Structures are given as structure tokens and as C-alpha cells.
UniProtKB/TrEMBL annotation, chains A, B, C, D, E, F:
Xref: SUPFAM superfamilies: P-loop containing nucleoside triphosphate hydrolases
KaiC domain mapped to chain residues: 4-241
One Gene Ontology term of the molecular function aspect: ATP binding
Protein name, entry field: ATPase
InterPro entries reported in the protein's UniProt record: Circadian_clock_KaiC-rel, KaiC-like_dom, KaiC_dom, P-loop_NTPase
Annotated Gene3D superfamilies: P-loop containing nucleotide triphosphate hydrolases
Stretches of the chain forming a coiled coil according to its record: none
A UniProt-annotated Pfam family: ATPase
Length: 257, 257, 257, 257, 257, 257
């Protein structure tokens, strides 16, 4: 497994994925509102530029670039400066145009990728492709074609996807076929622990690479995403509502043998 | 994170959100009937005026202003007096008109915001936008446009949203895309504890700011919302139906080590 | 909170709601079949007349008045006698007519309320408004208009609503928007305790008033509703299927410390 | 509560309902396939004739009378003999005809009730009325009219209703509005206890009468339904899948204090 | 209960049903894929011929007879030989033809039953009748007519039905009305026990006969179905995912008193 | 049970299925994204060629052959080399064409199977047949015809199927009728154990063969699928979210007796 890796620059996370995302792969990041999907994507693009010298492209279907500049700046990342240096493009577009201009070998996005020598792309978000048609198969086909076009250009992409589940068991089912089409499938989830809401990250799929199977805590700190330890001592994490393992409860009362 | 803050004037709550809502942001407050959404919004507007000298605007799509005056007065807040002082407007409108008059730079609501130098806006409730069309994407688009218009005017808004879930796990899923569009997402929930119904508040999302991750109790007191402690010693809070942690139960019987 | 109170005459219940329902308010009582909704409504009307001298009006959309007379008489309440005294009217109507005759300031129900000086109204049940149209918003609007008309007349109303949930977690969600529109929202539920079915009452919402947050047991006795203690020592009451708290179980075996 | 009672002749069951069903009332018995609904109805009719001298009528919408004769004979009840004595009629009909001939004061079923002086009626089953129309309100209206017609004739009726739930929490919701329309609502359910399937009976509603709140076991014996004890020592009965109360489990291991 | 019995030849199973299926009855066997429905049906037919001298008929709507011959031979049952002896017919047909040819007193299947003196019939599967129409009532009516035709011919039938539930509580509801129409209702289910999948058999309904209420384990052995013991010591069997009873767990640690 | 076996070459897995898949059978492998369905299929085909000298055919409806070559090479399997040797064909097609060319005895796929003497076929994936029509019965019929055609050609097939369930109880139901039509039904599932996501494999159905009933762990290693031990000491595996058996928890604290 000697594939070239596109490091995210988040050390603990890169460790989980054997060094980084596989160069040229399509990586889905799915989570509920507030789980930090966009932050993770911006961090991947920002670090790509400043740490690994890989020019980036952010395509957004809802937020204006101003919002990206502003939110990134709060985290200490000056995207506008990077744009001026010719290392980044943040573009507001719509799914239909985007598909067309990236699928067509002479499309605008293809030209842009080649002109800027873009190596990393973030899409915010794949969910907007679902609004193009009500035919499930067509959505799947559109997403497949879009992902294939990104791969043809050789870029490493981070594809964001909205997940409506806040907590609980019901939503533990995929709601679109996207996870079957991508190379990597990363889930961000809320978890209730001891009367607080923490965040959990797990990697369910990573084609052509070994990856950590742990469910890890992470935080959105003033300087970006930080991946932390597992939820040791708790059960039912993916149910969203944990409980202490009975063993832990016993030991706290009777002492450890 | 030096953003200007719009304090709610509820001390414990302002502490949870690093000092206050971010000035100019759109803040969603979602809860079941009786969880105090409207009280929280009125308190934000009232305190804004009397404590922080920020003129307010309340737009309501269902209740008549009289109901607001009456309910606020029960809590000791004389909205009518504030209206006479030119510091507040309480307006009964419909979603369609409201969208038009705030999106259009020369619309009535825009004029009103400018004339009164309105700094805080409360919308009761976003749910009514969902009745405008059955097309989910269109609802999302309408809400996005509405929120963008509020931001363009620079006001700090509190957007109420009805949540049909009383208790239990099934509704632990968002039912519209609004939480993805707003800056802040605050949930109010009922929780059964020891044969009583208490209320829980948690902040799931706050763009550009650190915030408390605790699930906190709160009460609607004769003088407004008061945020209290966590549910320490109980598990399963977000399921709506808690149980004592086994450890707590053991300790109560066998004593603490 | 000095609002005038319309006492129900059920002492323990009046205590839970700071003395009584707020005069002029609209109060929703929701429950499964057999939970005693109609009994509670009749008791409110009957006590209003004989204890507090407030004339009453019962509007029923399904049961004939004869059934009301008969059922009330079983509980010792002679409604027919009260009708003869001019203190009560029991009327069988349909939702459409009722809405029209109460919304129109010169409608039949308005005249009747004024002629009899009616102070208390019971509607059995709000559920029948849902059959008027399949448009959710229209139902909400009809109910809002109906409730506003009742308020305009200044009567204190008890609005019954059928809840299809017998037990269990799934139905812990409101099934219509009525609870958002009313002033008070009271839930009646079945609860399994120790191989028996008991009944639980809780108040989720009461605009402009403090109220008890306890989940209380109640019984339908030969003389009407009686509100009793909480379910102390049991958990999961709102799930419909309780279990003893582990602590209680431990103490019963090992003794109390 | 001195209403005349129509005893079922099942001693333990009559005790649960203060002596018997209320004469002239409409009594819903709901259960999954195999819970003994038909057996209970036949027993009510058979005992009515042989023990209390009340002529009976069984209307069936699916089974042929031959099946009834055969199944009853297995339980020692010779329905055919009772028909010959002029004390019973078993009639195969369809819901539409039945409604018409019982609602119309000069209809065939009305004549039959009067000619035979029928006091008890069994309907197998109410579920077939649901096939008449897809309009929920119309079903409710049809059932209400049907029940009112039965009441007008003064008969005590046992109305069977199919429940699709075998076990588990999801179906703990009523699936039609029938329970709101009838006087009595009796549920028959399967319950898993110690790797066996037992049967539970409970009375959720009984207008104008006190009734036992216990969840009772019952069996279909070679001589008919027998009502037995509660499920003492088990929890979660209405979930369909019980567990021993932890207290019981402890006591079996550590002994009783 | 002296009805003539059609023994299945599976000793432990015949014991559960008071000696055998009731001659002339319609018996539904429902289960998920792989639970051995077809094996059970073939065993009933095979044993009928070789042990009890009752000619058999298998009607299949999907599998070719070749598959039946092959699968049966794996279990040591030479169906082809029995066909040659004139004791068995295995016929591939479609639901529409089958209904017609068995309902019509001069239909092909009626002739065949009479010619071969068929006593036992297996239908694989009833599920295919559901594809004939989308009208639930029509499906019920078709199945009722089909079953009545089988009864008219006096055969003992085993009717297979596909159940989509693999494990878990949600599917604990019947998905068609067939169980209400048949005489016997037997469920085959998967159950997780100690990190393995076992199989459970239970009889929910058996008209005119006593039957075992136990939930029994069974296995598909190289010589056919074998019914085994209950799941003693485990709870929650019908949830599909058992757990040890706490009592058992305690005793294994602390010893039995 | 002396059927010829098509070994997968995964020793522990072949042991679970009495030596291998039955030659000529249709074997369904179902799992969520990332569970290794495709890896398992490639391993079956690759081992078939290099270990058992059985030529293989892979038909893919979404991935290009290049992706297969690449992913296989990561696992050390040089598919392209095998193609050159004439032992393998990897073909990108669509469901419609595939059905036609394999059902028609003179179709392209039939010719190819005969020309290459193909013994093993992998289909990635059956799910794509569901996009051909919205009629459930037609999907079933298409799949049955497709499977019959494969059987007619005598090949041993591995049919992949996408399962949308990530974790939890809700999806424990089959979502298509495919499992009823195939000979073997193998489930791959995610399971949360101790704050990590592991993978579980179980065999629910295997016509004409004994098979292991254990729920086994497995891993996708750098050299392919490896089947490991059971989840001993944990309960609730098929719920997706395990917990330690209380007995285990006790023993860890109090010691083993």
C-alpha cells in the first residue's frame, strides 16, 4: 500500500488513515449540522496549500465565498490571501453547472484545475445534487459521473454531505447511495456523554488502504479540528446516547480487582 | 474570536455561548410546544432594549401582538411601553410578505429596520415558511434568502422553529434543512427525570465561536428563562427519558468508596 | 401572575395549575381512548356551574347529548337538570357549522354564549376539525381561528383531542400543530406499572402561569377524576412501560443504608 | 353504578368488569390472530343463551356459519342446537348489507332482532368495515352509525377487531378510531415470558363502570377462555417481551430479606 | 378434541400440536429466507406419503420441480421416485391459474386431487398471491377463496409465506391478513444467542386444538427439521436478539443458592 | 451432502460452509458500504483461478474495470495478468444488456462463458437490477430469471448486494426478495465493540448444505478478507451496538468462581 498520500495536516487523523487520504481519491465526509464538516474541508484545503504546497479549489453551492473567508479567518486561515497568491479558488456555483463544467474535458472547472494546477478540491455539499432530480438512480448516476470527472483530473477531493440524524438509532442507515460510490466514507456524529454532547469521528470505508477502526472523539478548537481519544468506558456510542459500561460502574464502587 | 456579541442578558446562557450571540448572526431556537421558545425570544429582544440599548423587531406569523404584550407583561416586560419609546416594533405579518419586504432592499421591513436602527430581530416562527411550498428545496432556498437578507441588514436574529417531538428517540433527527443554513442551532427539549418533566437546553452549532457542550437544565420562571445545571447523575437525556446511572444507584446503596 | 382563575374543582389538579385554568384561555386536553378526557371536561363544566356559578356550554361532534347526560349521571352529575335551570347547554353540531357560528360575531353560538352568559366551553373534540381538509396548514388555520373566536368571547375553554398512542415511545410526538396554538397543553397517558395499567397526567405548557412539572397518577373514580401522587420509584413513565429504579430494587434486597 | 349487566359467564372476567358488560353497550375486543377473539365472542353469546336466557345473534363477514358451528362444538358448545331452539342466529353477510339492514328501522336485521328478542350480538369483525372506503372519516362515521343502530335496538354487542401487532412496541398505537367510538375497549395481546408465548388481557376503557386495571393472563382451554392471574414479577408486559424484575432476579440469588 | 390428525412425522413438533395438524385444515408457515419453510413443507409431504400413506401435491410458483427434487434428495427424500409411484405430484404453476383450477369444482387441480386421492398439499408460497393485485382486500379475498377451495377438497394444506424480518422488533407485526384467515399460524424466526444465529419455532394459533406455547429451538439437519428445546435462561427471544437473564448471570458468578 | 464445492480459498470461511460454495449455486453477499463485498468477490474469483484453476468472469455495472485492476493490485492480485492468460474477463456492462445476453442461450455472455470455460462469476451488484423497474414483482422476476440463466450455465456465482443499514435494529429486515431466490445468503455487518467498529459475517441460508451458525468477526487485511473468531462475551451483535454480557462484567470485578 504505497499510494501517494494527501495529508490533511491533522496529525491524529492522518495517523488514522495510514498517513493521509489517497491522492486522487474521492472522500465523503458526512455529518449533522454543526459537526464541523466545512471546517474539516477548509482545514484540508488550507493545510494542503501552506504545508504541502498543493493548490486548492473550494466549490460551494449555498454559502457565499465571503462566509468561507470569514469563518476560516476565525480559525486563523486567511483564504483571501491564498487566493491572491494564486494557490486557492473559492467558487460559488450550482450543481448543474458544476457537473457540466467538470465533466466536459474543456469545461470551465477543468480549465481552472489545470491552470491553477489544483491538487485538492472540496465540494460543499454533495447533498445539493439530490435536488436536481427525484429519481434515485439518476442522483446516483450524477454523483458517479461527477466523482469520475474529479478522478479523471487526478485531484484528491473532500465531498461534504449533510446527515439529518442528530442522535439515536433510526438514522443509522445511509440515506443515499453516495457512500457506495466514493473511495472513503467518514462519519461525524453527535454523542451524549455524561450530560454533554461530544463529537465522534469514524472511518467506515477506505478503498485501497488500511485505516483505524476506532470511534474517536474530536473537537472544533479555535485552530481547527483536533482528533482525540476513543470513548473508552462507554457503550452504545453509535446509538448517540452512551451509558457507562456496567463493569466501569462496578469498579468505581467496589474497586478494581 | 473577538466578534462583537449580542448578549441575551441571561447570564448563565451568555456564559455558555462565550459572552452572547455573535452580532449579525442568524440563530435558530427549536423546541416542542411549551418549551419557552417565544419567552426566550422576547427576553432576548427585551433585554436588548433595556440593558444594551439595541432596538428590536418582533415579526409574528400567527399570534397577534396583543398576545405578545400580554404574555410579556406576565413576565414583567412592558413591550407596549417600549414600542411607544420607539425602541420596539411587534408586527403581525405573513411569511410571503415578510420575505418580500426584507429581501427587497427598498422593502417595508428594510425601511423599518433602518428607520428604527433595529439591531435585534425575532421571527416567530420559521416553521410558517414551510407552508409556502411542498418543494423541500424551495423551502431551503426561501429560508436561505430570508436569512441572507437579515444578515445583509446586519441584525442579530433569533429564529424560532417548532419541533414536533415531545420525548423519545425517533424525533432525534432534523426535520428541515434550516439547521444547516443558520449560524447557531439551539435545541430545547423535554426530559423525564424522576417522575417529572424538566427542560433541557443544548447548543449544537455555533459558527465562529466556542460554546458550552453541556446539556443544561433550564426553567421558565416568573421573570423569564433561567439556565441551570447539567443533569449530572442521569443518562439518556436526549432520549427524553432518563435513568439514574447504575453507578449512582450502587453508591446510594453500598456507599461511596 | 394575578390572572383570574377558572377552577376545575379538582383540588389536586387546581393545585398543579396555580389555582385553576386562566380565565379566557384555551386549554387542550389530549389522551388515548379511555383516559377520561370527556369526564374531565364534564367535571370542569359541572363544577363551574354548581361550585363557581359559571354557566357552561358543551359542543359535541360525535356523541349525542343523551350519551353525555347518561355518562354524567353515572358520576352523579345531573346535566339535564342544569340545562333546565338555564346554566348549561349541550349541543350536537358539526365542525363546519360550529366554526362559522362562533367566528361570525352574529353567529348562533355567539348569541347563545351571550344569552346564557356562558363562561366555560368544552369541545369534544378538536380532532374532528382535522376531517375538514387534508391540508395541514388549513387545519392549523381553522383551529387558530376557532380558538381566537373563543377567546374573543372571553370564555375559558377545554378542548379535547384524541391521541392514538396507547403506550410506547413512537407516539411521543405531537401529531398536529394544535399544541402550538393553545395556551395550555395537558397530556393524559396510559402507563404500565407492575402488571397493571395506570393513568398519568402531565402539563407540558401553560402560558402565563407557573405549573407543576410532576407526572402525576390519576384515577376515574365513581365521582369523577381524582389526581394522585407521582410515580415515585419508577422510571420510564413517558415510555408507557415503567421499570423499578435499580436503586429501589437494590434497597428492597440489601436494605437501605 | 347500578346498570344492568350482561354477564359473560367467565367468572374471573365478569369480576374484572364489575359484574358483566353493561347491558346495551358496544364492546370492542381487539387482538392479533390466534388470541381468541372469536372464542370469547362465542362464549359470550353461548353463555348468554344457556346461562342467562338471552337470545343471541352472530354476524360474520368472512367465516361461514359451518366454521362457527364446528369450532364451537370443539369447545362443547352446540350452536346448531341453539339455532333450532330459536335462541340463536348465525348469519353470514357483508358489511354494506349489514349496515343498511340494521340502520334502517325496518331492515332485515332489525326485524330479526325483534322477532327473536335478541339481547346479545357478536360482530366478526369490525375490521371489514374498513374495506368499504379509504376515507378515514367515512370509516369512523360508518362505524359510529352501525354502533348507534345496535344501541338503538338495545342489544349488548361484542365487536371483534383485528390487530396486526404480534409483539413489540411499535403497534402500541390504535390503528383506527373505533376505540374512541365504543363504550368498552378490551385488548388481547401476546406476551413472551420465559421462552414461551402467553396471552394477556386488559381493559383500557369502560364507560360508566369501574373496571380492573390489571394486565391479566388468560388461556384458551378446551372449554373456552379462562382468565388467570397477573404477570407478577415481570416488567414490560405491554412491550410484548417481558423481563424479570431485577428485584426478583436478586432475590432468587441472594434470598429475600 | 378428537379431530383426525395429519402427523408431520417430526416427533417433537407433532407433540407440540397435540399429535399433528388437524386433517382438512389450512396451516400457515411463515419465515425469513433460510428458516427452512420449504424443508418443513417437503418433510410434511414426504412423511405423509412414506409413513402415513397419504398422497401429496406440491404447487410451486417460483422454483422449478427440479430444484425441489434436488434439494429433497440432499435430505434423503427421493421425490421423483414417489412421483413415479403415483403418490406425489410436484407442479410449477402461477397463482392465477392455481386459484382458478382449484376453485372451479371441475378445474385441473381439483381433478388431480381426486385422481391421485391427494390428502396433503403444500403451497410455495402464498406470498405470490400478493402480486396479483394492490388492493389489500382483494388479496385477502383471493386467499380466503383459495383456502376455502382447499378445505372443500378436504386436504390438509401447508401454506408457506415469506417474512421479510430477519431480526428485531419492528417486523413483529403481521404484514398481511393471511394469519386471520388460516386455521394454524406457525412462525419461524432467527434468534441471536451468544454470538450465533439459532432458529426459533412457535405456534401462535391453532383452531380447534390445544398446542404448545413454548418458543422452541429447531435445526435443519442433514435429515430434515428437528425441533429441540426452549431458549431457557434467555430473555427477549422474539426481539431476535436475546440476552441472558440477569438471574442466570448472577448465578454463574455467585453460585446457586 | 457430497456436492462439489467451489472453495473461496479463505480457509476459515470455507470451513464455515462445509468446504466451499456449492458448485453451480447462486450466492448472495450483502453488506453496507465498506464492508468488503467487492474484495470478497474478487478474492473468490482470483483464488478460483490461481488455486483451483477455474476461469472467472466479473461483471460490473458501475465501476470501470480499471478500478477493479487497481483495487485488486493493492491486495496483491494482478487481474490484468490473469486476463492476458485468458483465465479472467472483467466486463463493464448494464443490467439490461447483461440479463439479455445471459438469458438468451446464444447471447454474448453465454458465448463468453463457454469460450473461456468460465466456472465462477461475480456480479457487482444485484442492486442495479432494482433500477430497471419500480414494480417489485418484476424486479423479483428479473432476478430469478438472471439467476436461473447463471445456473443453466453451471457457473458458481457470487452476487453482491448493497445494504443501506450501517448499524442498528431498524434495517434488520430484507429490503428485496433476492434472499428468497438465491441458494446462499451471507450478511456482512458493522458492529460497535468497545468504541470501535468491527465487522461481522454470518450465513443465514445455504441450500443443500450444513453451515456454521456463528456470527464471526472478519477483517479486510492487506492480503484480503480474513475470517476470525466470534464476538464471545458480547451480546446484541446484530443490533450493531454490542454490550458486554453482565456475567462478563461481574467476573471481571468479582473474579470467576
Amino acid at each position: 500500500m504505497s499510494s501517494h498520500r494527501a495529508k490533511t495536516g491533522i496529525q491524529a487523523f492522518d495517523n488514522m488513515i495510514s498517513g493521509g487520504l489517497i491522492a486522487g481519491s474521492a472522500n465523503l465526509i458526512e455529518g449533522a449540522p454543526g459537526t464541523g464538516k466545512t471546517t474539516l474541508a477548509m482545514q484540508f484545503i488550507y493545510n494542503g496549500i501552506v504545508k504541502y504546497n498543493e493548490p486548492g479549489l473550494i466549490i460551494t453551492f449555498e454559502e457565499f465565498p465571503q462566509q468561507f473567508y470569514h469563518d476560516a479567518l476565525e480559525l486563523g486561515w486567511d483564504l483571501r490571501a491564498l487566493e491572491k497568491e494564486g494557490m486557492l479558488r473559492v467558487i460559488f456555483s450550482d450543481p448543474e453547472t458544476t457537473l457540466h463544467e467538470i465533466e466536459n474535458p474543456e469545461g470551465d472547472f477543468v480549465s481552472l484545475i489545470e491552470e491553477y494546477d489544483v491538487k485538492r478540491v472540496a465540494i460543499d455539499s454533495m447533498t445539493h445534487f439530490e435536488y436536481l432530480t427525484r429519481d434515485h438512480y439518476e442522483v446516483r448516476d450524477i454523483e458517479r459521473r461527477f466523482i469520475n470527472a474529479l478522478k479523471r483530473e487526478g485531484v484528491t477531493s473532500v465531498l461534504l454531505k449533510e446527515n439529518d440524524a442528530l442522535l439515536g438509532q433510526v438514522p443509522n442507515s445511509i440515506t443515499s447511495k453516495t457512500p457506495f460510490v466514493v473511495d472513503t466514507y467518514i462519519l461525524l456524529r453527535y454523542v451524549e456523554v455524561e450530560s454533554a454532547i461530544r463529537k465522534a469521528l469514524l472511518i467506515l470505508k477506505m478503498r485501497g488502504s488500511q485505516h483505524d477502526k476506532d470511534i474517536r472523539q474530536y473537537a472544533i478548537t479555535p485552530t481547527g479540528i483536533e482528533v482525540e481519544e476513543t470513548f473508552e468506558g462507554h457503550e452504545g456510542i453509535m446509538s448517540g446516547i452512551t451509558h457507562r459500561k456496567p463493569q466501569e460502574a462496578f469498579m468505581n464502587v467496589f474497586g478494581k480487582k
